[in-house]
Design goal:
One of its GO terms (biological process) is RNA modification. This protein has 279 residues and is mainly alpha-helical. Helix content is 68%, strand content 4%. The chain has a domain of 44 residues. The chain has a two-stranded antiparallel ribbon with strand order 1-2.
Length: 279
């Protein structure tokens, strides 16, 4: 319980005082370190853990995937005595997030048993890495499958590829799909998490694909009324061992006055250069 709520210091003391540690207690403490991103302590406990099960392996793999350490994640994956669909899918997500789509696809093809989450992860990975043709190809394989049927997550995953390639027939499929499902789950997601901008954006995109512009306008209105905001763009730069972050349209930087003055000088310099080169 202490590990779950982030009090790892107390959780570790309670754990150390335990005379009979179960797999659940080991896994709970390891999970606490993983959630914090402290893979050093998570790994240390994992190596001490007797009778490590697939849940413990999956925790560590997921932790390394989230911090971008695919080498350690793959080492654990290869070490697993019995891999399950969670293990395979975590690795696929990790490789896609790190731009290694080829390794992700090799694992996807090698999976002894796939589920819809695995398909969605691979399709989304192709879109994420600017490979819309491969995304659509895999999506069509899923469509022809007699085992799985695309769901709302699949639609959201494939939307970027449809938009990039202008795949008319798939746009029409999305239209039929949304009519069939009536977008009930997306609307429920908005109702359950009214301040989660991601849910609104997902529903808005599906409505836009169907050209339901009135519905798109209504979703935007709901976002404003609920206070949900789409996250603005940001960038960061390190100068003299100091990291500065800039938010799109923001002026909150502590040295903004100096920055604004330099920008003005650069603008004047560029303007004068253009004027000087104009015949």
């Amino acid at each position: 319980m202490y590990a779950k709520f982030g009090n790892l210091g107390l959780a570790r003391r309670v754990f150390n005082d335990m005379t009979d540690r179960s797999l659940v207690s080991w896994t709970a403490l390891i999970g606490g370190y993983v959630r914090r991103g402290d893979m050093g302590n998570a790994w240390f406990l994992f190596k001490l853990m007797p009778g490590r099960d697939s849940a413990a392996f999956n925790l560590l793999i997921d932790g390394y995937v989230k911090v971008g350490d695919m080498r350690c994640a793959r080492s654990l994956f290869d070490e697993m005595p019995e891999r399950n669909v969670i293990s395979w899918t975590s690795m696929i997500y990790g490789y896609c997030n790190n731009g290694d789509v080829l390794s992700a696809r090799v694992l996807f093809d090698a999976m002894p048993e796939k589920n819809l989450v695995s398909w969605n992860a691979m399709i989304g990975g192709y879109c994420q890495n600017k490979q819309p043709h491969e995304a659509l190809k895999l999506f069509r394989e899923l469509q022809s499958s007699t085992v799985f049927e695309p769901n709302e997550v699949t639609v959201v995953s494939i939307l970027p590829a449809i938009a990039t390639l202008g795949a008319l027939e798939l746009g029409e499929w999305v239209h039929r799909f949304a009519q069939k499902k009536k977008l009930d789950r997306e609307v429920n997601a908005v109702n359950m998490e009214p301040r989660n901008d991601g849910n609104y954006v997902m529903v808005r995109n599906l409505y836009a694909m169907e050209e339901w512009w009135r519905a798109v306008k209504e979703i935007k209105g709901l976002m404003r009324r609920s206070g949900a905001k789409k996250e603005v763009g940001s960038s960061a730069i390190e100068v003299d061992s100091r990291v500065s972050e800039f938010i799109s349209g923001g002026i909150a930087h502590p040295e903004w006055d100096v920055i604004e003055s330099v920008i003005d000088q650069l603008w004047i310099h560029m303007r004068d250069s253009v004027v000087a080169q104009t015949p």
